[in-house]
Design goal:
Number of strands: 8
Order of helices and strands: HEHHHHEEHEEHHEHEHEHH
Helix content: 40-55%
Number of helices: 12
CATH class of the largest domain: Alpha Beta
CATH topology of the largest domain: Rossmann fold
Distance between the termini: 35 Å
Largest sheet: 6 strands, mixed
Radius of gyration: 29 Å
Mean pLDDT: 83
CATH architecture of the largest domain: 3-Layer(aba) Sandwich
Number of domains: 2
Strand order of the largest sheet: 5-4-3-6-7-8
Oligomer: single chain
Shape: elongated
Length: 331
């Protein structure tokens, strides 16, 4: 039970808080009569409040015996907490969608790997290009047999692997890729637009272009914004280099200005920027961004996860308090 709750809590990422809503919001109105009932219940046990309408408060104070203060933990307060949580359970809080047995993932991940000369920089040991290939392999393993294509680019772009579910074949081609294979060592990111357009045209599902690179310039933003305008697809930029968030400072790593340029490029593609980390956090962030775009484009086939069931465990704990000796409440 504990593992189930922890796994659900881990799934509540900050990026998903914007999707938080209630599946049955009208149940929240039940809190109004419950509040009125609790208020009446509270007043029924208050002798002073019952006599205030017919007798002066000074006379009441002099005639009545001093009442002991009620304990902070008592049946009435527990009943109020129980009602609030029960109302939330019935309202059905939710922040993510879940797959169904009838849903088939037909989305495509197009990986565009930068193999220009700058990817040979050794701020990441042994080099940025080698660490990029390692990270891509981790992502392929995490995604299983999902559809994936691979593009390599420097001065020009080339399809290294068309759309396939064979991740081992992609890993095989990925292993032999290097900056020495490209005739031009410059970085022309706009060259990937045409092959990406041909690959994404083969699917009707919301898909993702994963741009694995270390830098960009402002001239690319307009072209990618024009390409992704009014599309269901997105572009996620994976910055492979030491950066302020990676944990290790480097004079040859990315500056704040370079990260801002990469972030602007990701915004142009309706996606987000993921920076390199020495742990697997960046891989999980990329995977989450891919899944979020896929789910948002398949709202009808992806039901929302009802997290109200998690609160039932709290209700059971509260309900168990009523088995305590002398634990009663006068109605």
């Amino acid at each position: 039970m504990v593992d189930f709750i922890l796994s659900a809590w881990d799934s509540l990422a900050l990026s998903q808080l914007g999707n938080f809503h209630f599946l049955r919001p009208w149940w929240l109105l039940a809190a109004v009569p419950l509040f009125v009932f609790y208020r009446l219940l509270h007043l029924s046990g208050d002798l002073f409040s019952q006599w205030r309408g017919v007798m002066n408060e000074n006379i009441i104070s002099s005639l009545a015996q001093t009442q002991q203060k009620s304990r902070w933990f008592n049946p009435k307060k527990l009943f109020a907490v129980f009602c609030v949580i029960a109302t939330l359970v019935m309202a059905g809080p939710s922040w993510k969608q879940q797959a169904t047995p009838f849903f088939v993932d037909e989305s495509v991940l197009v990986i565009a790997l930068d193999v220009s000369e700058s990817m040979q920089t050794s701020d990441l040991q042994p080099s940025r290009i080698l660490r990029a290939k390692q990270k891509i392999n981790e992502l392929l393993e995490a995604r299983g047999d999902a559809k994936t294509a691979l593009i390599v680019y420097a001065g020009s772009a080339h399809v290294a692997m068309p759309i396939t579910r064979d991740r081992k074949m992609i890993a095989h081609f990925l292993d032999v890729l290097d900056t020495d294979l490209m005739p031009e060592k410059t970085k022309n990111q706009q060259s990937i637009i045409k092959p990406v357009a041909k690959l994404l045209a083969q699917t009707n599902s919301p898909s993702t272009l994963l741009l694995v690179t270390d830098k960009t310039d402002s001239d690319n933003v307009g072209k990618f914004k024009e390409f992704f305008n009014e599309q269901q697809h997105q572009m996620v930029v994976w910055a492979i280099a030491e950066n302020p968030d990676s944990g290790l400072a480097s004079s040859t790593g990315l500056s704040e200005m370079q990260l801002q340029q990469l972030d602007s490029l990701a915004d142009a593609g309706h996606g987000n920027l993921v920076t390199f980390t020495h742990s697997s956090d960046d891989v999980q962030n990329v995977k989450r961004s891919i899944n979020n775009n896929m789910f948002l484009g398949n709202d009808k086939s992806q039901p929302w996860y009802d997290a109200g069931y998690l609160l039932l465990f709290i209700l059971l704990i509260l309900q168990a308090q009523w088995f305590r000796r002398g634990w009663t409440m006068q109605w």
